[in-house]
Structure formats: C-alpha cells, structure tokens
Amino acid sequence: MWAVGRFATAAEFRAAAAALGFAAVEFNYETPPAWLEQPGSGLPVRSLHNPCPAQRFANGRWSYELSLGALDEDERATAVRLARETLAAAARLGAQAVVVHVATIPVDTTKQDRLRALVAAGQQESEEFWTLRDALAAERAAQAGPYLEQACRSIRELAAAAAELGVALGLETRVNVYEIPNLSEMVELLDAGRDGPVGYWHDVGHAAVQELLGFGSHRAWLETLGTRCLGAHLHELQGIRDHVPIGSGTMDWPLVARFLPATAIRVCEIDRRATPEEVAQGVTALARYGVI
Fold this sequence. Notes:
single chain; alpha/beta; TIM Barrel; globular
C-alpha cells in the first residue's frame, strides 16, 4: 500500500523497506505486473494480496472488484481463476501466503457512511446510530446466505490449489460491515477450506473499525480465531480512520500482542501519505508494544 507510486522497481522498494527496518515485504493488488517478474534480490516477498497484480477488463472493471461470493457464476469463476494465478505467483516468488477479500453483500452502503459520520462526531450512543446500526444488520442478515454459500464453494476450490502449490490462503477481516465474513461466517469459511492450508488473516484496523460501528468486538476476533491466524495487517487507528502510521493513534496493541501467534506473518499496511520516518517509527513502536 505505502509503496504504490513511490518506487519504480521492486528492487527499489525492497531496498527502502530494508533501510526502514523490515525483514520482508508484501506485494498488494496495486503492484505493477513487472514487479512479479523481476529478479528476487533484496528482502523476500512474504505474502501477496490477491489479485496480484491487478488487471482491468474490457468492460472497465478491475480484478479486485470481483467477488469470490458472486451469485453470477462467470464473475465467481473469474475471481477464483485470478486467486489461483496469485497463488501461483506467490509460489514462484517463494511467498508463504496469499491474502484474499472474500465477498460483498449488496446493501444500502449509505447507512454505513452515516454510521461512520456519527462515530466521527462522537454520537455512537445516539438513537440515530443504533437505529441505523440495527437496520443495516437486518438488511445484511437477510441477504448474506447465498453469497456465503458461493464464497464457501470458492474457498473449497482454492484450498485445493493452495495445497498443491504449497502456499497458504489467508481470509481477511474486512472493514465494511456489508462484506463477508463476519466472525461466524469466518468460522464457516475456514471449515470449508479445512482440506487445504486456509487460515484467518487478522486486520487490526478493520476489526477495530467494525467494533466502533457496533458490529462485534476486536477482542472476539482474536480470542476466537487467534490460533488459526496465518498473518496480520498492522496499522493504527485515529478516530475511525485506519491505515495510519503505527504509534500515532488508539489501537489496542496489548490486545494484539497477547493473541497474535508467534508464527503469524506481520505486515505493516500503511497508506501512501505516511513519510518514511513515520513508517520507520512504526517498526520501533511495534517492538515496544511486543507485537514483533
């Protein structure tokens, strides 16, 4: 995320990451295609974020817009194919894992937009907040079933591909409450992928934002699924904004340090507005918090 548009080559990114104190890097879905074909000098690539690299189709849609839980079979099959290609790219690069977004439920997203605005204004205990929260939860629950069923089907297919390639598949916590999975759906998806190296990918900011919006708790994700966690995206929370430099906000780092397994891959996922100094300070902060 931070590297996009900042470096011309993968080698430049890897060298900069090493200078900032990192031991490995992740390539995300905005990574230029050429980076996946360049020689593997410098820091290792520990994980890829599906679909990597991104592709734009003739109809104008981007590959990262496709859903593994789509009811349209052509879209779902294409999303599975792209994830398989990312798994294969990860195997070529020697990466350990591929992170995936699973599915989106078509609800009225303006409800969440208003919830976020109310949180930002300090009105999360207002009657309007809880009325909107309950309406969004009901709308989500009414529609989720078919999308979750399709998503489970996709994960079963990808589990087999991941096993064949020797690359783990990490299902990520999402920031939007209208996306799959919530906590119970994550358990179902992990069970669907039990025949392959499929695990949970914990995004600290996403879990914390969902808690602010009244959907579950950050602690519950880690307590329930910590032992099944393959990796984590680490970033800070300022109000309801995430992906900010670590050490500058309100993230419950003692909670993360307590439950994140020692074997989990740790990735700092910071947005591109951060300075190199802020990114480097985040590495120092994570060591101080006991997260790395």
